[in-house]
Amino acid sequence: MKSNTLALLGRAVQPLIWLGLLGIALSAACVVIALTRGVIIPPEGDLTKVITFDLALGLYVITLGFIVPLAHFSASGQRLWVALGAGMTLYAYGMETIQQLRGIDPRFSHVGGLVDSLIGLGFGLDALGLIAMFAILAVKLVRRGTGGADGLVLLGLRYAIGATMLAFAAGIWMSVNQGRYTGAAGNILPLHALGFHALQAVPLVAWLFSRSATPEREARPWVHAAGAAWLTACLAIAWQTAAGRPVSELSPAMLATLVLLFGWLLTAVRAVRAWRASRPAAVLQPAA
């Protein structure tokens, strides 16, 4: 199966890649600070939050750097989208990192002054802006359909978009709830994290199949299975969380989640095997 997806990945949007690496570097720097002066910075700073936030946002932005070329923006449209997204991302990095290092919760501070409250409000608006930017990207990707050389990856992205929207909804839920905990023992954060990781997990399966010799009619059901498994696992965790129960508690919803994620793992293994089996043939092909 021929695909120009590899070429598109090679033309990844470099500013987004570097911006994502900045987040990873900030996360690593905060790990060093935490090891030298402790995780908690009084009165309410928590370096574990900034470490995970900067790392997660960095990985998200790097992933977008590889996805954006598939949206087929115009040259000016892509520049505008990247510029706005970069500005919002830098604001998020700055406010999360600086405020936590000051000992202030950047979102739900109980000790900060007026300026800190305004920063928290700006953080919320910034998050809404990032959601809007992703929605624009999602519309562009969906409008491309699932045909052509990149059809498998675009198909996988449809499922990933659905799961990512659930992750954004979980983020809004945490903001309205003024924290990650809900009900008796529910924690919204696992849903938030699992939803975002769909952007790596599902398109990866599709991309591996697109680089293999598997006929598209055989590969598509595997991509559907991977996407449906991951998206449904997110819905199962959402059900568990809405009930105020922790994801560590054994329940029908969590058993379903484990089965579904194992199903995704099977599709990933099948995709890797198909890709590896096609590599010798690809090497023997003459250069174009």
Radius of gyration, in angstroms, nearest whole number: 20 Å
Share in β-strands:
under 5%
Instruction: Extract low-pLDDT stretches.
Output: none
Q: Which class best fits the helix and strand makeup?
A: mainly alpha
Helix content: over 70%
Instruction: State the domain count.
Output: 2
Number of strands: 4
Shape: globular
Instruction: Provide the succession of SSEs.
Output: HHEEHHHHEEHHH
Distance between the termini: 15 Å
Strand arrangement, major sheet: 1-2
Enumerate how many helices there are, as a single number: 9
Characterise the protein shown here.
The chain is mainly alpha-helical and 288 residues long. The chain folds into 2 domains: 1-144, no CATH class; 146-282, no CATH class. 75% of the residues lie in helices and 3% in strands. The chain contains 9 helices and 4 strands; from the N terminus they run H-H-E-E-H-H-H-H-E-E-H-H-H. It has helices at residues 5-10, 14-37, 47-67, 75-101, 114-143, 151-177, 189-210, 216-242, 252-284, and strands spanning 40-41, 45-46, 181-182, 186-187. A two-stranded antiparallel ribbon has the order 1-2. A two-stranded antiparallel sheet has the order 3-4. Helix 4 (75-101) packs antiparallel against helix 5 (114-143) and helix 7 runs antiparallel to helix 8. The longest helix is centred in the C-terminal third of the chain and has 33 residues, at 252-284. The protein is globular, with a radius of gyration of 20 Å. It starts with a helix and ends with a helix. The model has no long low-confidence stretch (mean pLDDT 92).
